[in-house]
Amino acid sequence: QGSGPILLDEVECSGNELSLDQCKKSDWGQQNCDHIEDAGVSCDPFTGPPVRLVDGESTKEGRVEVFLNGQWGSVCDEGWTDRDAAVVCRQLGFSGAAKARGMAYFGEGHGPIHLDNIECSGMEHALGECGRPDPGTHSCWHSEDAGVICDYVEEKIPDIRKAGDLPTYCVLKS
Question: Which Cys-Cys disulfides exist here (predicted)?
Answer without folding.
Answer: 13-23, 76-140, 89-150, 120-130
